[in-house]
Each structure stands twice: as C-alpha cells, then as structure tokens.
Amino acid sequence: MKSDRLLSILLLLQTRGRVPAPELAERLEVSVRTIYRDVEALSAAGVPVFAERGRHGGIALLPGYRTDVTGLTADESRALFILAAQGAHSALGLDAAFGSALRKVMAALPEPHRPAAELTSRRILVESSRWMGPPHREVDVSALQDAVFTERRLRIRYRHSGTETLRTYTVDPYGLVSKAGVWYLVADRRGVPRLFRADRMREARVTDAPVRRRKGVELADVWAVLKKRVEQRPGGLEVVARVHRSRYDLFLRMCASSLLDHPDPAPDAEWITVRLAYGVVGAARTLLPFGTAVEVLEPPEVRAELARCAAGITQMYAAEPL
pTM here? Predict the structure, then answer.
C-alpha cells in the first residue's frame, strides 16, 4: 500500500540519511518515477524531504528532523535484532513484513543504540537445525496459520510415525510451535490435547466451524503438558551400561532422552557407568552404533538382543557378495 511505502521511505531516510532514488526504488520494488512521486507526497504532507540530483545526490530529510519514538534500551534493541536471525517468519510468509518492521525499529532507536543493534544482526547467527540432522521437508503452514487466526476448526490428513497409513482428524487448534526447526500444530481432538508434526500432514483444510477450545486454556498451557509428556515418556526397562570415555560426550548427546541420570565421572576413569530406560528390549539397539565403546552390563535379555543383532550383521557382511 502507498501509505506503508511512504512510511518506509521516511524511516529509511531517517536511518540512512541521504539515499539515492534508485536504491530506494530497488528496496521497495517500485520504479524511480514512483519514488519521486512519493517524495512529492511526503513534502505535501509537511515532511521536510528534498531531492538532490547529480553524482552525489539523493533523497534526504532536512537535518534534525525525525519521528521521535524512544524508550528502547540497548539490550532491548539487541534482542530484537537477534530475533531477526531465527527465521521462523519465513515459514509464515512474513519475510517482507519482518524486514519492514526492523526498519521501523531501527529508525525508532535512540541514535547511540543503532550501531550496537546493527552490529548484533551481523555478528549473531541463530541456526535452528541440529548437526547432521536429516533435511526437513518444506512445509506449507498457511492453512494451519489461517485456522489459528480465524478461530476455525481444521480437517487434516495425518501420517503417524512408523506407518504410511493416513488418518483423518478434525481438530481444534490452539496455535503453532516451532521447535528445533520443526513446526508442530498444538490442538485438541475431542477435548484431548494432541501434538501434530506439520511435515507429516498430507492435507489441511480450514472448515467453517468455529474452534472449540477448552475454556481458560491457552497455547502455552497445552504445549507445557504435551512437552512434558514427550520428555518424560515412561520406560519400563532399566539398562545398565558402561561407556568408554573417548565416546562419552557423543553418547550423552545421542542418548540424552533415555538417560535416567547424568553421572559425574572421576577425571581418570576410563569407563563410565550409566543407567538408561527403554520401553522395550528392542529399543536398546540404538546402542549398537557405538560398537565396543558401549557395553551393556544388565539385564541379560538386552545383552542377548544386542549379541543377536551383532551376529546377524557379522553374518551378512561375511557372506559372499551378490
């Protein structure tokens, strides 16, 4: 809209000083002629803006003029520009809006805080994906976003982990959560809180029916319950193992969700004893990639399961190639 563009021009000039008309046109994706018409409109509205032609010319405000929006501290301005690096706005289709918002914030900052805010955006980078994690499928969350903001129920076709079968659900959304680069829909299904990964949805349709949320319950409340349920999933099988120190840090990163405690080993200990919890015997196969650096001490059935799997691998690779 023209009003938004005029405000963007004003704030850019306030932040940058003299700016060439072609640069303004490129930033705002309009023609140079449109920029000059906008400058005339600003001048007619009482904004002291002028254009200088020539090699070193450009569009500028009279010295000392500014729209005075104050109150942000240095730490607050840094926090806003760190937020710019997180990238969640991209999936929500808010890249352009976010860039415009940052320009307005920069213009509103007291002069002494601007260099620190600009430096923060260049020196702090937030990467949400994990090391060596599998690439996430591109997810379109527009329908989910529409349902959340229009207070409508959602009809989704969803694939649960470990199966290729699609299930159809009608849910009442509370909101969206981005965790470690993965989008989740937090919703009630028949009054029960549920968590749905956006990349497992094959279809999402906003219905005409109004959402039916539990009274007094907010997104943060439901997310806290679901997060606790995932992180504290009960394991009926306790496993005692020893880990070689050379692989202990890697073991902690890969097996954190199964650890029952975090031992503090002696500095000279070659092997470190740990306790883990699994739902079933077969789940302990996740220890196999550590090879001889991790040995299960008990229970016997887990040792037997790992020995059986290891023997099968040995037999496969010892056989003649096809």
Answer: 0.56
